Amino acid sequence: MLDNNKQPVIGLFVTCLADLYRPEVVFASIKLLEAAGCRVEVPQGQTCCGQPAFNTGDFSNTADIARLTITALEGYEYVVGPSGSCIGMLHHYPELFQPEDPWHARAQALKARAFEITSFLVDVLQFSNIKSQFKGQVTYHDSCSGLRELGIKQQPRALLAQIEGVELTEMEESETCCGFGGTFCVKYADISNRMVGNKTENVAKTGASTLLGGDLGCLLNMAGKLQREGKDVQVRHIVEVLADELSYPALGESAYHLGKSL
Amino acid sequence: MQITSPQFKENARIALTDVGLQKALGNVKNGFPQKRANAVKRLPEFDQLRDQGRDLKNHIIANLDIYLEEFEANVIKNGGHVHWCRTSEDARQTILKICQDKGAKTVTKGKSMVTEEINLNEYLEANGITPVETDLGEYILQLRGEHPSHIIAPAIHLNLEDVSETFHAHHHKPKSMDPAVLMQEAREELRARFVAADVGITGANFLVAETGSSIIVTNEGNGDLTQTLPKTHIVVTSIEKVVPTLEDMTLFLRLLARSATGQEFTVYNTLSTGPKRPEDQDGPEDYHVVLVDNGRSDMVGGELQEMLRCIRCAACMNHCPVYGSIGGHSYGWVYPGPMGSVLTPQMIGIEKAALLPNASTFCGKCESVCPVHIPLPKLMRHWRKNEFERHLTPKAARWGIKTWAFFAKRPTLYRLLSQTSNRMLRLLGGKKGRIHKLPVVSGWTDHREMPAPSSKTFMQQWNEKQKAGH
Ligand code: SF4
């Protein structure tokens, strides 16, 4: 539990996909953090966590991007982001530097302060004041990096359990990869397609009208597949539901009827 | 065996549409992982054993030479022979020579992935010696002229109908779909072969330094007959299999059975300690151990060292969603799945195996079930790095990542890039809010819609708000 008299200052790690595809996820994160008594700042020096370069084997560019990110996020008590995958990448930074390199210690320090949002709300803030009007049957996909690198499993469920209108139906194999894998889904399109097809089948079997998760990469992948298959399931990032930010359409749904312009 | 790893993508594409294979793969997914999970649940200290297994293996690898020499000394003391083979070719020649010295015509074989690795069967056949596989799965594959698609369940890619047809064609008996009948047929065929064999070749799950013993674990008992009936027993195995003591061996047996098949213990655990002694009722007159290196000692002290901890339990492939989609043959060489994607490049060269370490989403499931905590994603990433440094990464991907990184290192430019992409994608998404076809990422849109961004980039909106004094 945090010291009640002190307002923690959060450096928000926006993450590229949320910045590009789903700004509402970032606004919802800010809303939640503020509701939990934090002050949120958006460090301007940040870009991407560097994962695309890291997983392509370009360690030299990854280290450059890591230095940039470490610098941008220094000075904040906590760094929080709406993605297990990107925060997991920040946790990989110490591997990029030799132990005697000063950057190694700085990377370690960032790792110790960097949290995925649901785990920050539950594990660090012990926040239990979620207020959302959301109503419906949902199912939850455990994204791989969050689950296995950061141990995120019960945190999102603990938060959802605070919303009266949420009925959670677990899908089979909720811990199995959806087949996104960054560039994997394009480089190994056929295999990825099979994996996401298995996933949407499991989603559909629950009968849930909304699929939630904590990582936009996976969510875009599953939303795109559900839509291509004509399965009527809305896909949202969990923070949208937690923050009651539901006034705009779910992923890949039409904004037209809401009268929004481009 | 013909290497088809460079055609991994084509192999995978074909595998994905192979109805029989897909049915068989469904059995892997629904079988092994559940059994393992149940076995783990029944043993609360399982995770502690995994840590012990990892630590012990690390100790062994750091002292590999010492334990191997101790093992050798004890084998010799027991009256056996040890042959050190640096390459597959050395190993093949050594084994052939032993067989020829015995005037062998047929050899029976227990299941051994190392003999697959060194391509032993084809070599023996080319030299006039008939190898007979005695493990049921391997026997089926031999009749069909196929190679294993899995390291502990070699014929897992087949269905009962396939086996039934194969036996019908080779055994000239009425066709049966009863597994018990098929098993009996195989037994009858093999009994005669066991007795006629001049040499028995087995692998080894572990080598025990303190006693000079080798051990094989099987669920069929075929290995026992393979190593006790013929006059000569050759153990073909690799150097990282050595463990210091019998007690250490039992630690790994406990980890292995649970991780592999979800058993508490494998049915047959058979130790061989040298040739038959005067007071023994049975056993071989000659006992040879062929120790294959084949690139392993190069891994000691390097970035792949942790891979040497592998005890070949197959948990990583049993739990791998990529393996589960395409099966083992797609990987194009002996070792499939995550462990293969690390080992194969080391053994056949990264040039040929370049696609394997990339064929992973890094979901991390493999590492989470590995009984000796091998960080398989990290090791696959090591190969990606190696490929990138040696310019083996496809040009387009290389150029793409470098261009992207140029922007990612410059926040202001990166923002502009994001804004431009955001606007373009929103335009393409139009009223529908999603894109049906986008040729530059056809890998995505061939199979799914691409959701369009819901509004301007976050950074744009945030900074506008800040300016407005919000
Ligand atoms: S890498 Fe680990 S899980 Fe895979 S076969 Fe080896 S020991 Fe088993």
TrEMBL record, chain A:
Domain Cysteine-rich: 11-90, 138-222
Protein name per the record: Lactate utilization protein A
Domain of life: Bacteria
One Pfam family cited in the UniProt record for this chain: CCG
GO molecular function: oxidoreductase activity
InterPro entries: Cys_rich_dom
GO CC terms of this entry: cytosol
